[in-house]
Write a structure and sequence with these properties.
237 residues; alpha+beta; binds fe (ii) ion
């Protein structure tokens, strides 16, 4: 807990651990269930023997961009709440019990040996989030290669952003390359970062796709910015 606060103050991001691994497994099995029962997806998926997240990591390589986009458009009921609940002891102590949380999490399926599923480097501020909004990035499996996301500490991120504008830098990706940190995560761990932290994902070489969800939240008492109650809902942890 002490390290968590210290990390957030010093670099704007930290790794949080859930004491409830079975909760995370439940969230990922709900995700698989949703894919299998979705009317747009079940016809495409039915030819694969999809039982769990490890199967999905293999199957994802055979899916085209349209199908991957259908997966990203799934609305998984209670998923945001379940994520917050899985990390409640960490979150409650820093953000309090009353939270505003993104109604549905963002689903990411990042495939190896392709550029099409990469996330271009950005900070959440650039996406219209308030300075008080934090992001939880949760993979559904261990991440021990560079298939996850990279982060750059908030102070450096802001400096690099100013530099990019001042010097009219053409390639942000080139500029950020040497500052990228790829945290290794075990199942049950997630990244928590503030909206100033640059993040994104890169091309990677692995036959297993990376599957993750991310959810934004903030203290209920903090002001909103461009995202309102169409995006957030209130929740008591
Ligand atoms: Fe983001």
């Amino acid at each position: 807990m002490k390290n968590l606060k210290k990390d957030l103050i010093n670099k704007g991001w930290t790794i949080i651990k859930s004491e409830k691994i079975n909760h995370i497994q439940k969230i990922s099995s709900n995700f698989i269930k949703e894919i299998k029962t979705n009317s747009n997806l079940n016809k495409i998926i039915t030819k694969y023997d999809l039982k769990n997240i490890e199967d999905m990591r293999k199957v994802a390589n055979y899916l085209n961009d349209d199908t991957l986009n259908l997966i990203r458009k799934l609305y998984i009921k209670d998923c945001s709440f379940n994520i917050l609940k899985s990390f409640s002891s960490n979150i409650k102590k820093i953000f309090g019990k009353k939270i505003l949380v993104q109604k549905y999490p963002q689903i990411q399926v990042h495939i190896g040996y392709t550029n099409s599923t990469r996330t271009f480097p950005h900070s959440e501020i650039m996406a219209g989030h308030s300075p008080y909004t934090y992001n939880i990035w949760l993979p559904f499996h261990n991440v021990d290669n560079e298939s996850g996301i990279f982060l750059i500490d908030d102070f450096t991120s802001v400096k690099l952003c100013d530099y990019e504008i001042d010097k009219k830098i053409k390639s942000r990706e080139e500029l950020l390359k040497k500052y990228q940190i790829f945290p290794k995560l075990k199942l049950g761990e997630a990244l928590l970062f503030n909206p100033f932290v640059y993040h994104g994902s890169n091309y990677f070489k692995n036959k297993l796709a990376r599957i993750s969800v991310d959810v934004r939240f903030q203290k209920f008492s903090n002001p909103l910015f461009q995202k309102y109650n169409d995006f957030f809902t209130s929740y008591n942890i």
